[in-house]
């Protein structure tokens, strides 16, 4: 049963209601190891589904283009204040619709078309919006890309500095989508200062770990910080931009009217709820447990002969290279999904396979930690993964079915926020 209950949806559109329940059961019955996903609390779900969705609020607090903002103004101000307090930021904007528009706002705030922008190459773990060729950011600006070292799998900071001195980018991005190691914000900041660049930290994957004290913060190092509000932060699908006071006006102007109209007020409320939850003492314990689970899972996978990019992890994310396992990332991910282990296929650094059929798997521990799974279960998770990957390479579907049943049995003892199984 969905929590909060959705009786009107069942009455008015049983077809959609059935899909909602089916998705909830799917999430309940699977080990959700996609690094960019999590479970939100029932309170976040209630805020996201509230009557706040009825209200248009173009502009900012005290400067709206629609009347009737007596509630929305203090609501958004509260969300902003909670973001500033949680992360220690001088300024916060909670209006971006998602992570990519938030990143695009950075371009609009600090660059002109054709300006050089520097980011981690997508195949090395960067993000599309950090200047990759198929993204608008790679088409409208001149991308300068840095890599990870082949021998360590970690960002080559010497290369970053050499490229920055040579190309003089207006913005340097740090962060990405498949980085299993701690980001060296002070080193990036030093290079940005030396070259006169704006340092933009994309912390979408690690925002919750930063909030919980399980990863160093870019505040005090980066000029501007972007993040989604889901992933490790356990909020709704939205985004925020934080910055120094010096850049507050440019950031706000880039978001509105530069890129979008009215904010989604129901999402703003849900972000505020998630930020309050992240400020509670229990969230710090959660963040530490996310990392502890990832470290143990990585070690268990290594013990089973899996090659891990950089050799392991410092955060929630593990990147597995299947090159020596005789199977590509895509068929392995599909078999694992059938077996109740949900993750995604992913390119690995220096991958020789095509992006839609790469060599790797990306794994994250944020969602299973929310369900309450601890370090003691990570060797079993690794064992299941290994069984399925080996079976998939041989075409043995019986192993897939057996593991799926075992996982359903295990997860029945671990409640899922937002949905309760009924007989």
From TrEMBL:
Q: Which gene codes for it? A: glyA
Please name the pathway.
Answer: One-carbon metabolism; tetrahydrofolate interconversion; Amino-acid biosynthesis; glycine biosynthesis; glycine from L-serine: step 1/1
InterPro entries per the UniProt record, alphabetical: PyrdxlP-dep_Trfase, PyrdxlP-dep_Trfase_major, PyrdxlP-dep_Trfase_small, Ser_HO-MeTrfase, Ser_HO-MeTrfase-like, Ser_HO-MeTrfase_PLP_BS, SHMT-like_dom
- Positions annotated to bind (6S)-5,6,7,8-tetrahydrofolate: 122, 126-128, 246
- Provide the protein's localization: Cytoplasm
NCBIfam families reported for this sequence? PRK00011.1 (NF000586)
Q: What is its main location?
A: cytoplasm
As for what it does, the entry says: Catalyzes the reversible interconversion of serine and glycine with tetrahydrofolate (THF) serving as the one-carbon carrier. This reaction serves as the major source of one-carbon groups required for the biosynthesis of purines, thymidylate, methionine, and other important biomolecules. Also exhibits THF-independent aldolase activity toward beta-hydroxyamino acids, producing glycine and aldehydes, via a retro-aldol mechanism.
What reaction does this catalyse?
A: (6R)-5,10-methylene-5,6,7,8-tetrahydrofolate + glycine + H2O = (6S)-5,6,7,8-tetrahydrofolate + L-serine
List the cofactors: pyridoxal 5'-phosphate
Q: Report the sequence similarity comment from the record.
A: Belongs to the SHMT family.
**Site entry: Plays an important role in substrate specificity:** 230
**Name assigned to this protein:** Serine hydroxymethyltransferase
Question: Which E.C. number(s) belong to this protein?
Answer: 2.1.2.1
Q: In this protein, which residues make up the domain named Serine hydroxymethyltransferase-like?
A: 10-385
Query: Which superkingdom heads the taxonomic lineage of this protein's source?
Result: Bacteria
| Record has Cytoplasm as a keyword | yes
> CDD domains of this UniProt entry?
SHMT
Positions where N6-(pyridoxal phosphate)lysine occurs in the chain: 231
- Which UniProt keywords are given for this protein, alphabetically ordered? Amino-acid biosynthesis, Cytoplasm, One-carbon metabolism, Pyridoxal phosphate, Transferase
Q: What is the lineage of its organism?
A: Bacteria, Bacillati, Actinomycetota, Actinomycetes, Streptosporangiales
Against Pfam families, the record matches this protein to: SHMT (PF00464)
